[in-house]
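Action item from last week, closing it out:
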Amino acid sequence: MNFQQILESLGILVSGVLFYSYTYNWFPPGHPQRQRWWTAVLGLSFGGLAIAMMITRIEIAPGVFIDARLVPVALIGLFEGWKIGLLAGLVGAAFRVSLGEPGMWAAMAGLALMGLGAGLVNRWAGGADQVGPRHAFAVTIIALAITSSGLAALGTEGMSAFSRVWISYLLMLVAGIAFLAKLFHDVVIEHQLAAQQQRFRAILDEAGDAIRIVDAETLVIVECNRADCEITGRPREEMIGRNSRDFWLGDADERTRREAAMAEARATGVARTLGAPLQTASGHTLIVDSTRCIVHYQGRRYEIIIYRDAGERLKAEAAMREATELRSVNLLAQAASHEINNPLAVIVGYLQLLNDRAEAGSQEARWLGMSIEASARIKDAVARLRRIVRVESTRPFGSTPAILDTEKSSQPADE
């Protein structure tokens, strides 16, 4: 057996695996031209590999040759279906027809049937990612059956030749299909994982909140999204692989608070923190709200931290507090004005009657005038209570605490 020829054939087949891997990058799943060009490129390419296998024959005994023409067709049909497998088989069959020689039609039919048979096994498996050893073994048996049938079509001479080469041929098919099928399967899984990772990153980056994924045991950052980078001001490359403690504030109380949140997440699965400081790359400190949750994946624990700038929440809470205060003040002011207005109207009326009867210029008239002026000021103060639109207080003075400034509180904000 010529081992150099075996290595040459194996090298050609391995180059097919490499080409198959590269074409995933040319026509990734979802590419608008994938269905048409994928079929054409792979069918023609692996048909070309079948031709190369016919040219690069393996001498197993003096004057006795075999070739692995069915292997490329079997592999591409097994992983990409009957259409591509049939196209590859027809390309190889066209070359075989051009050679002529006895057994031409049997060889031509065998290549086409190999593509169809491998495609049927692909359908049985449920797709390229589901192909396993039993499917590769089934394709190997089909290839051996096609070879034996083709030689049987030549009559006694063909069967005699098959009896001499079938063991070598079986070993070649097992080595070619079974071994390379594992490589093909690895290529499929690798590219599927890459596609899933791209989708995961795209979804992660579209999230409005910052998301950071940390190894729960080592606290090493394994992933972060665009919002995390924008809030912290650090590029993704700077954060991935770093210990999350490297970005904590140096304040001992704050570090203790974070450690407590981590411990709570590990104990209960989820921990929420409100109003925690976060230092950006520029040194600016932001106040953020965060949620931590622990997930288990492939035997490891990961901590997913989702956080956002707390500014909007704090503004909303301040507005809510102000609205609550204003409502309380308004209710009190309306009640006070109602309770004061009724007796005040009676008092002012009696004062006015007394003032009308008092002797002009007398001491009583002066006192009554001062009382009427004070009543008017009380009336104005009560009117302001009804017009309160916001809460403004005076400054505390000495032992006097801050009180409601009714004059400022009753004026519109733009005054």
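Closing note: Residues 208 and 227 are 7 Å apart (CA to CA).
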